[in-house]
Write a structure and sequence with these properties.
single chain; 329 residues; mainly alpha; 0% strand; disordered C terminus
Length: 329
Amino acid sequence: MIIKLLSQFHYPFPMLKNPLAEELQEITDHQWIDGEYLALYEDNPQVRQKYKKTKTAHIASQWFPTARLEKLRPVCRLMLWTLYNDDMYEESNLQEVFFVHQQTLSILRGETIAEEARIPLSGLLVSLRNELLQFLPTDSITRFTDGLQKYFTGLEKELDYKSRKEFPTIDECLNIREDSLCLYPFLELMDLETGIFLPAGIHQHMVIKRLKALAVRMMACFNDVQSVLKDEATDAIYYNVVKVIQHSGNLSLEEACQETLRIHNEYLKEFQYLQNFLPDFGEWQDAVVNRVHYISMTLNGWKSVSYRLDRYNSLEGFPDVKTIQQTIS
């Protein structure tokens, strides 16, 4: 039923893929997973293999299809960080996640060096910051870190509901998933792809902010249908959109999945309308149209790669809790 339903998530947008994907995947697998960050899972080659199979560089290459290698590299490093960080802290307590939250942002803002941060991924974050500083101005870096702040805020809310074993409302769940999916940081790095730095007023425009939110929410709906069986098995039901809808309406799982698809399709209609009838941004109009075009491509890109990944489709695609706890202890 789940596979059949996933095929009904359609995106009438282009889908491109960076031809550097495999070259960056080689760097991810051998220079990072088996190299710089080997200590995280040095005694567990099976876990390292699972991360390699997630094909993080291929996901990044769908979202940044025309970036040069040196600009795609930090995106791929960030994509690997999102998986490592999610796995390490999705079973942690709020106090621990809040500490990681503060240390992560402090490193990316240049306020804390790796040796002082006392978190396992500090070295990765320092490398990421140094790479981004080569290509992005301060305003872009600030928007990127604001996107990560959203992610941690969403993660903390998820853990809060899970610890209390309570379901949020449907609207609150969608708000949480909009943040915790960790797509905003990548959307804010689109400056790497386009090479055009839009004024702050455009980034803050209500239509542009809504387009970003709609893209993230569509992806959250797809992701939560895709992973609902895994989330049932791992007690992550309290912030899965499907399970929240099922609980709220006392529905069957299939009915809840269909309702999630309906919500998704309403988001899609709104996205297309806003994309087709953008406000007049004057001299920046072409650049804004192009930016929205790149935002739209994240949807088919994510579906294309994640549709086939064990990480999101089975219980075999991610490290077990015991392994994670050994890593961060």
